Amino acid sequence: MDRSLAEPGPAIFGYTSRFSFEPGERVPIHVSCEQLERYAAQLVRLRHGYEGPAGPGFREEELASGADGVYAGAFHRPNTGSYVTVSDPAGLLAGLASWTVELHLQATTPQKSVQCLLGSFDAQRSVGYAVVLRGGRLGLLLGDGEHEPVSLMLEAEIEPRCWYRVRASRDAAAREAAIKWRPPS
Hints:
By secondary structure, the protein is mostly beta strands. It has two domains: 11-72, no CATH class; 99-182, Jelly Rolls (Sandwich). It is built from no helices and 13 strands. The strands form five sheets. Strands 8-9-10-11 form a four-stranded antiparallel beta sheet, with no helix packed on it. The protein has a three-stranded antiparallel beta sheet with strand order 7-12-13, with no helix packed on it. The chain has a two-stranded antiparallel sheet with strand order 1-2. A hairpin with a 4-residue loop joins strand 8 and strand 9. It is elongated, with a radius of gyration of 22 Å. The two termini are 36 Å apart.
């Protein structure tokens, strides 16, 4: 697995467990470092972040806080991106022979190695399905546990940061599977 948070070299990544907090609520900050033994932290108020010619440029205001200081750096795998895990303890989704799934996708890094977008695929047993993004192309991976998994890859590459509607389906009676996509209208 590629643990890299950025380009090769020292990297630091800070994040919170949620996007919003109530006034006065504690905000836990998580920090992950690569190739850094120590890092300095300072709370700032971002006044403006756009550095293009139409904006006022990057502006921040330093705020004194109890979190200011120097800390030991360590790598912690962040779960970045938007995702959801669906618990299925009764296995209701595991044995479906025919199904259709749909997602709306805005990929920020479509050229990265294989990314599972949606699915329930057990790579150890080669069982299940996964809608994947591989080298900028959408695909559908299917496995029955007895044969080599089948991979259906679309020819066209998607553009980064553009919205797409993706639909994948399997019809067991007709012995057909398909993956389709289009930009939402």
